[in-house]
Amino acid sequence: MSDLPVVPRRRSWAEPWKVKVVEPVRMTTREHREAAMREAGWNTFLLRSEDVYIDLLTDSGTGAMSDSQWAGMMLGDEAYAGSRNFYNLWEAMTAHYGFKYLVPTHQGRGAENILSKALIKPGDFVPGNMYFTTTRLHQELAGGTFVDVIVPEAHDPRSELPFKGNIDLGALEAVIERVGAERIPYVCLHATVNMAGGQPVSLENARAVRELTARCGIPVYMDATRAVENAYFIQQREPGQGHKRVAEILLEFCALTDGCTMSGKKDPLVNIGGWLAMNDEKVYEEASNLVVVYEGLHTYGGMAGRDMEAMARGIGESVQDDHIRARIGQVEYLGAKLMEWGVPIVRPVGGHAVYLDARAIYPHIPQDQFPAQMLAAQLYLDSGLRAMERGIVSAGRDAATGDHHYPKLELVRLTIPRRVYTQAHMDVTAESVAAVYAERDGTPGLRMVHEPKYLRFFQARFEPLD
Questions:
Q1: Which of 30, 215, 225, 243 has its CA at 20 to 30 Å from residue 375's CA atom?
Q2: 3-class DSSP state for residue 263?
Q3: d(C-alpha 232, C-alpha 324), whole Å
């Protein structure tokens, strides 16, 4: 009996798919990476893809599509009006998100633009659970002012609160009392909250927000970009929800809102596309008219028929429990390695990325010398790993004063594309982070030498301080 193998107490899981096509990547030399980083102005967005080994810049449009989705691409109905793929997309959205009306857009920010123009008037206020870059900009360009009403724990990377994306009900109520319900066109509910570290919103909190806003006659519009991931966290973390399928929870959550914007490049598993959905027929009429001006006809809205078909199929795949368990499991695997090695990260680990706490890693670099931007650059120099800054550069400037916004969170996002990388890639990533962390002392800050007017993190350029 002593010769029998020991069965481990914890059994490993594997991805619910197998590899069919591969794309070669290459590791470059340190000298090559240093030259590439100088050319890119110390901004990972300006690196050429061919110079990147492991690309964790974003999960937006970078996932791998299934054989079913690729087959659907061949069934694209490219009619200018009334494409059958639009109706397939509408049916998939209604079945899994539950909204009545669909306005397709070229990607998520197209939907944000249409929603903002349809609902926001100059002087309005839009409360939300932490800002997102493009969302806030569209709200501001429409004349609105974003007001952060997320729970305080969201700003603390060490807090282990399981639902750090929740709206602070007291803060929301205070905003309503201060400005009046008539000056709030909608509450913006992000699920999950990207800038907080991919943190989810509980079903209990969504119900409470709905009850409060319903009393005041204020609609709730959700950023549903990663709502499937949010539903998974509800299943795993919220008492009384563990017996439900993710698809059931998603429908229940969406029913607590009046509509949503969607970047199809995330949860729905496609490389391009998005939509705006709603239940209000008058809002739909306005949005379907605006989309003709800014995107395209209301039955394609900036997408080809083949892309709508791929998204329709991707929506169905995205709500499968096996898929989302493996997707978030890979993120948690990377996070667990980094925590084991003592690297400061946002806790608990979110759904689409592991966020490094640049403020804790580089306490000697003042925030206006862009520590997160430098950390992202150092990761690339070490291993060819591309990550994204999510701190003062992303926060931008105050429109009234011109000063930097100084967010409490100064982060670097290691964003995991869906169905793309293996656990070995996660091991290489973790080892690179650990190596940069070990060499953190004495790393200089950066100065910004070129600053675009809008969304500066995409195109700004920097140089190291002496």
A1: 225
A2: strand
A3: 7
Q: Whose structure tokens read 């800014």?
A: 294
Q: Using an 8 Å Cβ cutoff, are 55 and 415 in contact?
A: no
Q: Which CATH number fits domain 30-59+321-464: 3.40.50.300, 3.90.76.10, 3.90.1150.10, 3.40.30.10?
A: 3.90.1150.10
Task: Give the position of tokens 């804790």.
Answer: 360
Whole-angstrom distance, CA of residue 288 vs CA of residue 244? 35
CA distance 13 to 56: 23
Q: Which residues pair with 128 in a beta bridge?
A: 148, 188
What is the model's pLDDT at position 7?
A: 65
Give pTM, 2 decimals.
0.95
Residue 128 and residue 104 in contact, taking contact as beta carbons nearer than 8 Å: no
Taking only the tens place, the pLDDT of each residue in 316-328 is: 999 999 999 999 9
387-264-99-221 Cα dihedral, nearest 10 degrees: 40
Would you please indicate which residues are annotated as catalytic (active-site) residues? 80, 132-133, 223, 266, 390, 457
Q: What is the pLDDT of residues 23-43, one digit of tens each?
A: 999 999 999 999 999 999 999
Chain-centre distance for alpha carbon 371: 21
CATH for the stretch 67-318:
3.40.640.10
Sequence-distant (≥ 6) Cβ neighbours of residue 133 within 8 angstroms: 195, 394, 396, 455, 457
Could you tell me if 229 and 264 are in contact, meaning their C-beta atoms sit under 8 angstroms apart? no
Average per-residue pLDDT for the chain: 96
- CA angle 252–257–261, rounded 5-degree value: 110
Provide φ and ψ at 353, rounded to 5°.
-165, 160
